[in-house]
Amino acid sequence: MCTCHLCWRWHDNGRRARGQALRRKDQVLPRAIGMSRPVLGGLVGRSAEWVKAVETGRLQTPRLPMLLRIAHALGIEDLAELTGNSHAVPVRVFAGTAHAALAAVRAALTDYQLSSTAAPPRLPHLQARLDRAWAIRHASPDHRTQVGALLPDLIRDAHRAIAAYEGEERREARRLLAGVYHLTDMYVAYQPAPELVWLVADRAMTQAREADDPLAVGGSAWALVSALRDSGRWAEAVSVAHDAAKLLEPYLADDWLAMWGALQFEVAYTLARRGRHGDAALLGPRGPGRAPAARRLPAHPDLLRTGCHARARGDVGRGAAAARRGATRRGQARP
Predict the structure, then answer these.
(1) How far apart, in whole angstroms, are the C-alpha atoms of residue 105 and residue 98?
(2) pTM (whole model) above 0.85
(3) Fewer Cβ close by (within 10 Å): the C or N end of the chain?
(4) Which residues pair with 10 in a beta bridge?
């Protein structure tokens, strides 16, 4: 039996004991049994050494976002069970409740259809459905419910397309599946399901690379950077965004500028979140050395974020239009 102190003791009949937290004076979290430090650390994006340091008090009590992730990893519904506080603090108060469609989206993501005999979707039809879902995501005030209803069938049909087509058609199917994962990321990112965020981000990058599509790789990197940053993996987040932006640089004459800008913004935002404000100003999308491409980005930060967000999430027209509006406001026509 493992001796990790961050997991809770379980009764033989499967019920979690809610008794006293077995704490030493220098511990900030309860003693527990049932999950190893490396496993728990992996689930919350930290090392086994970090888990031990928190247990023994070498590190201070984690901030609320990390406590929520630990609680989710351990299946704990009351933060008091982690902190030892006698006052009940339901996790759902801070983490939020799951959307009604989350279970169906999760089931679609893990439905491998190994013996499916259903006819594969036509790729143009799949593209049209994906475009419609993105339009809803951008325009509908109730987009979470509407997109959540569309995603399960989109995910399953895109999976089937990969298995059904060959050659260039399979490459196109992979590009479409990466786009479906990008949309799925926008849904699961706001759900109490961090494991799905990682699953979707990793799958999107895999499909984009298999499709050999730099723009799809850029969109996948955009999602992956957020997951890395929220896990405290700052250097990796900057590296992924920087490398993906460099991959796009030969194509900036095309309609890919806003994606490049989105990734440059992610570099700056990640550095700023880390407290490296000087580096953020230097390496951001409008920092020194970014000309001439940076001069074509919107001058106002809100315009940049709007254009980048739209383009990074699959809306070519809206992202490009935002970039052009920014250039026009500065009196510079986009080349």
Answers:
(1) 11
(2) no
(3) N
(4) 16
